[in-house]
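Friendly challenge for the regulars: who can give me the structure tokens for this chain first? No prize, just bragging rights.
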Amino acid sequence: MRTRHLRARLKGWGGVGAMAAACALALVFALALTCTGSVAARAGAHQPAGHRTALTADTARAADDCEAPEKQTLPPSRADGPAITAIKNRPGEKRKLVVGVDQNSYRWGYRDPNNGESGRLEGFDIDLVHRIAEDILGDPDAVQFKAIPTDQRIPAIQDGRVDLVVRTMTINCSRLKDVAFSAPYFRTGQQVLAPKSSPVEGYDETLAHRKVCTAKGSTAHAKLEEDRRNGDLPASTDISTTVPNQLDCLVRLQLGEVDAVVNDGALAASQAAQDPTVELKGEAFTTEYYGVAMKKDADDLVRRVNQILVDFRQDTATGWPASYTRWLSATMDDDPSASRPPAPEYLRRD
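First reply, four minutes later:
Bragging rights claimed.
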């Protein structure tokens, strides 16, 4: 089976001990970041009851009859509306974009312990967050980051704890019933990660009698459940191990508690770069798209983010191509479809 040829290595991150230390550091920052108020919820409370535009209704209907979820979004616009106005009207130091992110996904959203700027988040998703903040508030650093686990991404949006989630979040039909998404900004697919010495060869019969780890609330876990019910995954495959964050699966793998991990290929490739003893097994067996998630009635914010994404894709100097080269090209170099941004399609054009 073909595996990715990973050129990048992260100094000081290999092995169980280093990963355990990284997870402990991540926990400390997570506690610090999440002890904040529900600013977005208070702002949204002033909107009239039943405030939903016609386009939002179109989006809701599309989610109920959904075949291409990555196309169920609104066309770009720079116009301000209730959601953006509420963000801009926050007083003083609270005038920031509140964004749910990951802080332990290497090259996507993480804190590098080798970085001299202690505590600063970096990665592909983080670059996008700074671009959105610069466009809406005029300051790329006008951001309040909130570290949220995988299964809390949708509740954090619905409860008003964040304005946006930019956290390698797959656009799918089920999630479109609960939140709105931007146009896709990255294409990936589910893959299997296992030790190089493992007899596991991919998403196939070699997973029989193997214990597989996934993140709770992830599309990977939903796929495994569906395929085992349908007989497309061996019935003896143990998929009971779920964890709050996908990096925890790598730690379980390193400790020998599970035999394999199923995760987005883009994330799995970064995990393989962290630990040279593991590798991707087989090809991607799904096609998925990452999007920025927002409240369902935040039409103006969805449109604005889509406009920002248009500019981000086209900006070769500091936008998508530059961010991809900096963070992802070393681990995604043998996947041509990942090296360019997906072409956006919108629900309805004005």
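The chain is about 35% helix and 15% strand. The mean pLDDT is 85. Your move, everyone else.
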